[in-house]
Structure of D-3-phosphoglycerate dehydrogenase:
Amino acid sequence: MPKVLIADKMSAAATQVFRQRGVDVDVITGLSKEELINIIPDYDGLAVRSTTRPDAEIIAAAKNLKVIGRAGIGVDNVDIKSATDRGVVVMNTPFGNAITTAEHAIAMLFSAARQIPAASARTQNGEWPKSDFKGVELFNKTLGIIGCGNIGALVAERALGLKMKVIAFDPYLTKERAVKLGVEKVELDALFQRADAITLHTPLVEGTKGIVSRERLGMTKKGVIIVNCARGGLVDEEALKDALDAGHVRAAALDVFAVEPAKAHPLFGTPNFIATPHLGASTLEAQENVAVQVAEQMADYLLTGAVSNALNTPSISAEEAPRLKPFVDLADKMGRMTGQLIHDPIKAVEFTYKGAVTDLNTNPITAAALAGLLKAAMPDVNMVSAPVLAKERGIEIKESYVDEAERAESLIRLAVETAKRKFVVVGTIYRGEPRIVRLFGVPMDAAFSPNMIYVRNADKPGFIGELGGVLGRNKVNIATFSLGRMKKDEEAVCLVSVDGPVPANLAEEIRAIDQVKIVDVVEM
Ligand SMILES: NC(=O)C1=CN([C@@H]2O[C@H](COP(=O)(O)OP(=O)(O)OC[C@H]3O[C@@H](n4cnc5c(N)ncnc54)[C@H](O)[C@@H]3O)[C@@H](O)[C@H]2O)C=CC1
Ligand SMILES: O=C(O)CCC(=O)C(=O)O
């Protein structure tokens, strides 16, 4: 039974889902990094929110880890590159807390416009400070949204309901989508110049770090309101404090900070400044949504291989997973076999899919074959890490599809190019079993087995008898023997499945047979 660790506070719904699905689960929150490193080798899955930060060291220690699930959207707390290199799927829950976070942004906007937190604190302090608080209306004002994805769009919808005018900057927002949302797509500087209030809804990436900079704050209208419920590093906090102190920015409301938890901060205590402790996603509904979703997704992956909302590997739906499985197995075997038969660095790999398999999402099949191919040199590679590792090594990958009229049979052709030559293997599924139908240009019909001997030999009489003799003298029992040749008297290829591991010196003895050109031992 797979075992998952929930390392951050999460709705109990996650634990229930894991247990109902047959996944063993421990909930241990508040672990130090060292404590997590000590226990992580026991787990197949790690579920987190934003407190736990699975970095390269934690991931390196996680010898059995297959999946990290983020109950939330932002994955800046997870070292995705390390996870990918180690073949760990990283998944998030992109929609479960979006409405809640959009509502928090709107709440922050109102709070800033009317200074509700300060007014509340002073009223409860017995001051009745009515004349100190004169807010501004949001009606008819221009809201500038930076990042118009899931949450940005929900904020836009709500702001339009408040009869605000909405302008948005997002390089990936199409004109059509902008029209559909009822927002005006603008350039970044124009947004800073025109907005009465600015709200941020982008991830923290190279292009967005410090997007609310001192220079851009200088472009804004006097009296602008700044709201950030996305990620801390988006705003130059020092510049924001200066702009608030100068009275240029009317009010600012931050839910997120460059360093969290922000227990002491230069902005704290600044007039017209509102802070919440990263509460954007903190509602009963959102926390239940993300907990259930992350547990379902992680259980799906650990139990069936279905992948949803992964950031580092292609999706495989629950419906697709069982249909893909035989082809993923076939591709893995073809890759592993070929990887053991080639002995030079791979330059390019070409996949050709024919027949009914072309109806499926072939990305996982390609990834499985690549992982198999690279395994001889990189034993820890898997479907998640293989495409990235192949790319890093400059291996060119091509895929093509032949949608043949005869669709009953599916064929996968794997062509691997090294500096010296091109190796081609073609495989199929026959009666549910993976089979090789062509090996290095030679037609054959062979099953995969745990121990195989591959021999390339001159097609001359006497070879089979001699090979049988060598195997017999070494007490190696032949399970199946598949033979094929291109043309009479030219080269032949044979694939022998044997019962049990091949003795160390056997390949040498076979190589000594006159007709033999190449011998390789293949283990599956
Ligand atoms: N405060 C909180 O508790 C929460 C914060 N968040 C954060 O909110 C942010 C947005 O989340 P979603 O809307 O779900 O993400 P999303 O991926 O749907 O939208 C992000 C948008 O940012 C845009 N973008 C990327 N680079 C940009 C750039 N340089 N300039 C402008 N736009 C750019 C993208 O095109 C995309 O449309 C994330 O950082 C997420 O972590 C999400 C949930 C809760
Ligand atoms: O889990 C949380 O409370 C934070 C949510 C968040 O920041 C996110 O989903 O990106």
Notes: Residues 306 and 316 are 5 Å apart (CA to CA). The two ends are 24 Å apart (CA to CA).
